[in-house]
Amino acid sequence: MYTRRDFLKHTGTLSVGSMLLSSFDMKNNDINYPPGIQLYTVRKEMLEDAIGTLKKLAALGIRQIESAASDKGYYYGLKPKEIKKVCSDLGMTLRSGHIHLDNKWQKTMEDAALAGQQYLICSSLPMNRQTVDNYKFVSKSFNVAGEAADKLQMKFGYHNHDFEFEKENGKVLYDVLLENTDPKLVCMEMDLGWVVATGNDPIEYFNKYPGRFPLWHLKDMDLAKKQSTEFGKGGLDIKKMFEHAGKSGLRYYFIEQEEYTSTPLESMKENMDYLKKLKG
Questions:
Q1: Alpha helix locations (H) across the chain?
Q2: What is the pLDDT of residues 65-107, one digit of tens each?
Q3: Residue 184 vs residues 178, 203, 212, 240: alpha-carbon distances, Å
Q4: Whole-number pLDDT of residue 11
């Protein structure tokens, strides 16, 4: 199956793929963050019927939305203000979006502001330059992008996959990004599934870089196949992740799933049921 990760790696582009519910109770492990979804999970459905799909997601209890690039643009054929209103009418918020850093960057930011987004997230790095120097160079460009987003009262961030955890001369490349980007200008959206798939522990990163990860992609992973799966079927200890959400600096999480046992919406229902049981 050709996944979003494959697409990002083979394009080789630098892409950019309100409440803070601070009532996460560390004592009884109550998960009170409003559930969100990365719309790439339902990419086909969004292209076929964006409004109808958003209605189905709202009915499942989804409250936060993160968009992604599509053949019809970042908003699946809808205008920025239109998708903002549709989401609002359904009790949801278009909170974030995966975007490209390109010659349309200014318009991308302006559209995101019209859509009411708080976050603009880059989700890929050039694949042919897995070096410390390249990651330092990219960090500088991220800081510049962060300054531009800040002027429009939005936050710029980066979303990881697995390749960032490769090393050069013993140095983890993801750490280079963390150490060379300004925390005031660049946040990190941690894809928990890809972190555990590389054999790393997200909690170690929360402890080492506290507060740097206000966004998560909540993704369970089949560690043998290295592909996403429904919650509870993979190697991610979701309950344990939420127990350390405070150290992460978590504000919002977005469920993302790229492979499915049945259909995307049925998998989303299964994921939401899992979270409800986890809350107790």
A1: 4-11, 43-48, 50-59, 80-89, 105-114, 132-151, 173-180, 192-197, 202-208, 238-243, 245-248, 264-279
A2: 999 999 999 999 999 999 999 999 999 999 999 999 999 999 9
A3: 12, 21, 9, 27
A4: 38
Report the length, in residues, of the chain.
280
Domain count across the chain: 1
Q: Nearest 10 degrees: CA dihedral of 110, 255, 25, 243?
A: -120
> 245: which 2 tokens?
């959400």
Residue 233 in contact with residue 13, Cβ under 8 Å? no
In a domain, 190, yes or no: yes
pLDDT the model gives residue 127: 59
For the chain, the straight-line distance linking the first and the last C-alpha, in angstroms and rounded, comes to 35
Strands 215-218 and 186-191: parallel
CATH number at residue 253: 3.20.20.150
Given a contact cutoff of 8 angstroms between Cβ atoms, the answer to whether 236 and 228 are in contact is no
Q: What is the pLDDT of residues 10-20, one digit of tens each?
A: 334 333 333 33
Q: Is residue 207 part of a domain?
A: yes
And the tokens for 71? Answer: 């053949």
